[in-house]
Design goal:
0% strand, globular, phosphoprotein, 96 residues
């Protein structure tokens, strides 16, 4: 089922193309790594593509650091719906 969120749709398309994940499996609740089985190398390719398409720089290192240090739950960045919201925030901040 398609989401009404164009950011989510774009990211889902990028993941389907880049990581060869079945498009139907990519839902707003899906965890990029746990549910979609995307490894860190594929994730970097995905992020690179997101950077290109949205004209932003996704701070993956900062996010990973926050998760690893316990400052933020992984769900905040690595669940599809949350990821789409973070990208929207980055785009909005850039347009500022």
């Amino acid at each position: 089922m398609a989401s009404a969120d164009p950011t989510f749709e774009t990211i889902a398309d990028i993941i389907a193309e880049t990581a060869n994940v079945e498009r139907a499996k990519i839902t707003p609740e899906a965890h990029v790594i746990n549910d979609l089985g995307i490894d860190s190398l594929d994730f970097l390719d995905i992020v690179f593509e997101i950077d290109k398409r949205f004209g932003v720089k996704v701070p993956v290192e900062a996010w990973t650091e926050q998760v690893n240090s316990g400052k933020a739950p992984a769900d905040q960045f690595f669940v599809m719906g949350s990821l789409a919201r973070r990208i929207d925030e980055l785009v909005a901040a850039k347009q500022g």
